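::Encoded backbone::
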Amino acid sequence: MTPVHRPMANDFLSFDLSEEIRLVREALRGVHERIARTLVKEGPLRLTLVGVNPGGALRPHMAAGPIAVHVLEGEIVFDAAGASRTLRAGALVVLDGGVRHAVHSPRGGIFLLTLAAPVDPAPHRAQ
């Protein structure tokens, strides 16, 4: 699925999450493990819908900034900080930046990933 780049061109953006989830479900039929659909990518803010097929996974990785994972449908297993947590629809977890984590889903699930990416410092100017 091609990522959607939606900068904050107006004072606010509005999404029909039911429709966005439908599109992710549809795209999942054509992949083996997972799919991601970027909703917003503006400055430090990233909002991405992630769909994981049964048996699918996101390998261990780290994000530079803090993240929030809100399970919207199904069930995922979230591994972080030496623990494994089964998260079902409605669950929300928040993780600090730099913490290694992974996701897998025995039955399949869809979650909204929110990332607050660190802002690059202003470039150093020679004097």
